[in-house]
User: Which sequence fits this backbone?
């Protein structure tokens, strides 16, 4: 039996937003019932604010697939389309308190359905035929080379087993495993050639509190505030206590159900990248 978190079990037993929106503004479909997993996501989007005001799903799959779909609809309601486009499969898994490695493909399916729906909202056809260089690698589960490569890149995958966990490719007859291994080798060789993954830099010198505050303020102004303002929101630095950073939201960010995701996916990740790796961010709703 899989080791599921309480949140996964709760969303499996009591899934939210099951069903289909009549005359939806966006539709995303991924998977294939014949192959084992399928998800249809429908969205209602406010034309004036571009916010997702309702989301419903229909899925055919395991407990993880149902839970991932359920929590996805909860996460994106209240987000703008732009904010929702930044949601990753890792955000879905983290929101659930984690998923077994062998079930990570369920979170990927949720992310793909969301991106397909957003593409449909922007004018892309509901279903796209495989064309050009995109070809099916895993015939058992109809997984393409494009999906495998994008999943490797987004989740930093290094082994065939990890690719199978995240995409199901190679989980059937196994004949495609050599092709998956080839894609892994080609991808990482190109990344090394580009110099994207170089040797780690020497440890940074310990920052003084003044240096830390200055870097935090600079990162907020340069990397974070522009993205929030693009969606009508804003952020204020309230206080810094060693590695804890307290911020306050305003504008469309204030009271948005997506702030928990925004804190981790955008603000905290940027501060970890440009300031210090052990930084933690907390939202302040009232400050005396």
Assistant:
């Amino acid at each position: 039996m899989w080791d599921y978190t309480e949140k996964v079990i709760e969303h499996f037993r009591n899934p939210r937003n099951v069903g289909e929106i009549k005359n939806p503004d966006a539709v995303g479909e991924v998977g294939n019932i014949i192959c084992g997993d399928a998800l249809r996501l429908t969205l209602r989007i406010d034309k004036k604010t571009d916010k997702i005001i309702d989301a419903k799903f229909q899925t055919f799959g395991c407990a993880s697939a149902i839970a991932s779909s359920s929590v996805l609809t909860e996460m994106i309601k209240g987000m703008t389309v732009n904010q929702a486009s930044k949601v990753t499969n890792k955000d879905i898994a983290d929101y659930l308190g984690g998923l077994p490695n062998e079930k990570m493909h369920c979170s990927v399916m949720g992310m793909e359905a969301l991106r397909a729906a957003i593409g449909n909202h922007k004018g892309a056809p509901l279903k796209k035929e495989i064309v050009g260089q995109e070809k099916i690698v895993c015939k058992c589960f109809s997984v393409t080379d494009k999906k495998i490569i994008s999943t490797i890149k987004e989740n930093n995958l290094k082994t065939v087993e990890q690719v199978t966990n995240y995409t199901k490719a190679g989980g059937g007859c196994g004949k495609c495993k050599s092709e998956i291994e080839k894609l892994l080798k080609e991808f990482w060789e190109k990344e090394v050639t580009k110099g994207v993954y170089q040797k780690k830099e020497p440890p940074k010198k310990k920052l003084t509190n003044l240096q830390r505050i200055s870097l935090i303020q600079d990162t907020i102004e340069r990397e974070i505030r522009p993205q929030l303002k693009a969606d009508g929101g804003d952020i204020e630095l309230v206080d810094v206590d060693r590695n804890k950073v307290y911020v306050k939201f305003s504008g469309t960010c204030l009271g948005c159900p997506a702030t928990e995701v925004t804190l981790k996916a955008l603000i905290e990740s940027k501060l970890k990248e440009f300031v210090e790796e052990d930084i933690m961010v907390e939202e302040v709703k009232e400050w005396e």
The chain is about 45% helix and 20% strand.
